[in-house]
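Lab manual, section 2.4: Encoding a predicted structure.

Procedure: take the sequence of the chain (424 residues), apply the prediction step described in section 2.3, and record the output as structure tokens. A sample record is shown.
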Amino acid sequence: MTSQRPRSSLFGLIVVLCAVGSGFAADEPAATALTLRDCYRLALRQSETIAIQRERLKETEGRFLQALSGALPRASFELSEKRQDGTGGSAFTLKEIPERKFILTQPLFSGFKEFAAMGASRAEHRQRGYEQARAEQLLLVDVSDAFHLLLERREERGALETTRTALAERIDELKARERLGRSRPSEVASASAQLRRVEANLERVRGEETTTRQLLEFLTGRAPIGAVSDEEPDVPPVASEDEYVGRVNARPDVRAVEEAWRASQNQVTIAWAKVFPTVNLESNYYTKRVGASSGVDWDVLLKVDAPLFQGGQAMGAVRESAAKAREAKLEFDRTKREATLDIRDTYAKWQAALAQHEAFNKALQAAEDNYRLQVEDYRHNLVNNLDVLQALQALEDARRDAIAARYAAKQRYWQLRAATGDTS
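Recorded output:
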């Protein structure tokens, strides 16, 4: 089980880009080759997902100000003009009763609801910050996958072009031997057939390279993507699994769910506030009054509202918020366990990718030695042309497998760093 990710599948995007083709405006190409971190910085500016997370962070700042306003005094100015069917003979029968006053209201006690609301807003603000950090880490995984896939396709294309050159030289040699009567026409035909197969694979890889480049352009907003440079080592420093798992508490999605749990605990306090009385102090300063109250310039009102019976509404809200708090705690526990499993699973895949990378490198070295020896033996008539072609095919497969294994290990490495919350 892996953590939920607010993004589409990498290869899903590739399929979409295959369907719509290139639709990017041409920018000025970069003067130097783009590195992975260059692409990541461009993607951070381009990503709508990250921009949405930033706006959600600003929403929590607004909610904090709203919660803070509940504990601060409120001041207003009120003007009223009352007209009635009076005779005007006394203060109680005036035809016009204007009134102007300044009103100052100070909440004194409301069950600590405002302080709990501010605590919930602060927790939500931290939660949104961690969610943004996690979205940025997952974006790095997307960029890393596209970046290394593009490098893999370009290197695979180079390997196929090398094989095509070797086959073309092989065909020239066979034709020369055929003219001397030392080779059969079937040998030239079999080598030509293998050359056509390599050329077909070369066209396929070129198409995949174009699609992958378009995906990287989509993520970074830079088009066209020219040269890219991989500055990371093939085998980065390896730490123990326990060391990686020990970072689970610092992972942003775990921290985000923890803050959501804390916010839900404050919601319980807010619900309990409906059970307690509220005490408010209200003061009025009059700038204009008429009638019997014309000589009164100010007054102060202390208001206590103690709920006696609400039909179970308050206790129902308390039970609901308490259940949500327990649910948030369970969600936190589950997220933490899933994050631990994600780290262990990604670490195991990375270790397997490193082992494959080493094994395929050895296989490539063996295939190169085998092909070289087969060519020498053929020139001494110790083996036939089929043996040479099979050795060349094995060399091509080994070279492409080694390329794929190297970039798979790099992708797993960055996935592991994102799984532990480390994208520095």
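Check your result against the sample. Residues 27 and 315 are 62 Å apart (CA to CA).
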